[in-house]
Every structure is written in structure tokens, then in C-alpha cells.
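Z., the sequence and structure:
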Amino acid sequence: MNRFSLSFCDPFLPDIVHYGEKEPALVIPLYHTIPWLALNEAIYSRHDDVLHDFWFFEISYQDAGGLTHTLNISPEYVTGAQSPEALRFTLRYIRPRMRKRLFGGEKLDKAFLSEREDAGELDVIACIAAFMDKDEAFLDHYIAAL
């Protein structure tokens, strides 16, 4: 069975919260327990208490070759957001990928990064589901689409 390592960096807590390895069925419910809307407001209203300007939810797994694949979800500050649907996120998809070298040949980049800003809540859920299904084609297309 596939298991995913989960962590959350709360902007007001000194340490990253590590949830350990979880089954796929628990990942999206855990994502929904994070009070994204309240934290979005609090980082502005309590800015002097913020310990981490970069806060995130992160999912990762190791493939059969021992290489790490990571989906990092970090909220963007949205002024006056009244509902979770109004929130926006930056998605970072980090995974191994062969890259062409300048003078021919290829080299393994163990931490190839694609990034997409301004993703909505439904987009985030779709990407989490694709990540857990290891649907690299969907993630490559969606996250690199902008």
C-alpha cells in the first residue's frame, strides 16, 4: 500500500508539524482540517506574531528507486477572503527528472521543480488526488500550464 509523508508549517508555531506516513484516504481529510481561511486573516491581523512568512502543507513519497517526490501547497495572502473558494495557493511539484545537458546527453535532476501560482481550492484538491495516484502526466501538464 502507498503511504505518504505529510507535514504542515503553521505560520504561528515554531516547528513544522510532521503527521508521519498516512494512507491516501487520510490525506485530503487532513488537508481540510487546516484552518486556511482563519490563518489567511491571522497572518495579516497578527503579523507581529508570525514566525514563518512561508507556510505550507506538504505531501511526499519515495519511489521504488528511493527518490523523493513532493507536492508543496502554500497559500497566497488574499485580502478580504470570505470563503475557502476565494483562497489562492502556489503549488510546487518537486520530483526526479532527466534533463538534457548543454553539450548532449542527459543527467538526473533529483529535485526538478515546477510551480504554479493562483491555484484555487478545487485545483489543489485535484492535484493532491493526482499526486496520490502518481499521475505525473496530469501534474506536469497542470502545474506547468501557466
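The chain has one domain: 4-143. The CA atoms of residues 41 and 80 lie 8 Å apart.

Let me know what you think.
H.
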